[in-house]
Amino acid sequence: MRPHIEVLLLTLATVATAATTKAQQSPIQQGSIQVAGTADVTHTRDIGNDFGWTSVELLPRVGYFVVRGLSVSGNLRFQRIWYDDNETITDQRALNWGIGPGLTYYVATRSPRLFPFVSARTLFTRGSSHATVTSQLGERRVESRATNNVWLLSGGALFMVAKHVGISGELFYQHENFTARYDPSPETGNSSETYGLHWGISAFIF
Description:
Elements: H1 2-24, E1 33-46, E2 51-67, E3 70-83, E4 89-106, E5 114-135, E6 138-160, E7 165-182, E8 188-205
């Protein structure tokens, strides 16, 4: 009977080890892959020039956990902007796109579903826009090209609604430096600051 007991004990040990390993799996473990994205609608005011703009923005990203909790990501940006009209410039629209690296650190809690995090990302973007300019000579359509450098810091929390899917909310601060050229005018530059709240969804492969 002894061999049968040894086989039974070995089987129980194998099952217990497999169950423990499965229980220890985490979306933020080393080697996990994260496919995520956020979206936001914001209104920014340029105080120096006394005008504002409304933006709809999508920020997809793919991350890889190099160690437990720390994700290195590649980030994309797609943005559509509607500028406020003023006395001389109307119907101004812009389309921007960009790419850049990022780091996000997640903290494990007692709950296996909740992961607070902090994040830092940068984006190098390019864009185009058009506007109708009114002067003493009448109306004319002006087009431009822009180059932007964006730095974004955020903090929030990820909540896993399923084993491989989570939703997130994060407060963010964004600083942006940009240069633009409206033909035939010379190149101009400015900067802006934006505060807001991002909501997003993440899928994890682990």
